[in-house]
Design a protein that fits this description.
The protein is mainly beta. The protein is 0% helix and 45% strand. It contains no helices and eight strands. Strands 1-8-3-6-5 form a five-stranded antiparallel β-sheet, with no helix packed on it. Strands 2-7-4 form a three-stranded antiparallel β-sheet, with no helix packed on it.
């Protein structure tokens, strides 16, 4: 990956924003996400204003199957690709999200 960067965050309420990457302008098209606690889901925008109303399907890079998932699990790595204007990561459920990292770059 080139042009690597990180966004970090945490939260303690269901549907609270964990990470809000509002201006993906560096050409990044590859993203990895993990946290040490809690579960998260990902919403994206193509125009910078209107976010998807359903969470994005993620590749579970630590799972035993290749089935996509909608919600992350703590301590596992998840990935997704696309040309987005913005990415919003929300807490999914009542368990606090800790040490969330969204890594981004170009392939």
């Amino acid at each position: 990956m080139n042009n690597l960067g990180n966004k970090t965050g945490s939260s303690n309420a269901d549907n609270a924003t964990v990470i809000d990457f509002t201006d993906v302008v560096d050409g990044s098209d590859s993203f990895m996400l993990m946290s040490t606690g809690g579960a998260m889901d990902v919403y994206v925008t193509l125009d910078g204003t209107n976010y998807s109303t359903a969470p994005l399907s993620l590749a579970d890079l630590g799972g035993t199957s290749t089935d996509p998932v909608l919600v992350t699990v703590a301590g596992r790595l998840f990935g997704f690709r696309g040309m987005f204007k913005g990415i919003r990561v929300l807490q999914a459920g009542g368990v606090a999200v800790t040490a969330a990292v969204l890594r981004y770059g170009t392939m």
